[in-house]
């Protein structure tokens, strides 16, 4: 589960407990201003809405089920000629932008569903450690670092390069063409 969702859920739980405690104390005769209770209820409602709507309940487990092949640039033209879409992700374990791309875009349910289609081949270039073959592939596109994402398809036989920071809507649009 996303750490932000966990933090929001814990905050929400704490707020609800505080509200219950204050209501209990008020019934026991303690002076608790109504404005404090109203403010806490409003803050709790806002926190609940953010938790529910901003961070939808998507599972990263589906992403883990995707089958990634090692990057093999020489296989891409034949795959595209046979009607396949090839999605290439060149990343590294130490790359924070790569992790952000995975969390914010590649692990989202709609993207996972598109990447998991039968006509899509996934290739991963892991640059956690230097690899001459992957670096040569990047040099072909004047890219000299990670992250690097490109999709090949009958619509994009030469490849469609994405920006370093992936945009969810752009990835969806390109993969649905």
From TrEMBL:
Keyword Acetylation: no
Pfam families: Thioredoxin_7 (PF13899)
Lineage of origin: Bacteria, Pseudomonadati, Pseudomonadota, Gammaproteobacteria, Alteromonadales
PANTHER family per record: SUPPRESSION OF COPPER SENSITIVITY PROTEIN, THIOL:DISULFIDE INTERCHANGE PROTEIN DSBD
Organism of origin: Shewanella colwelliana
GO BP field: cell redox homeostasis
Keywords recorded for this protein, A-Z: Membrane, Transmembrane, Transmembrane helix
GO molecular function: protein-disulfide reductase activity
Transmembrane annotation, as ranges: 6-24, 36-55
Stated name of the protein: Thiol:disulfide interchange protein
SUPFAM superfamilies: Thioredoxin-like
Alphabetized InterPro entries for the sequence: Thioredoxin-like_sf
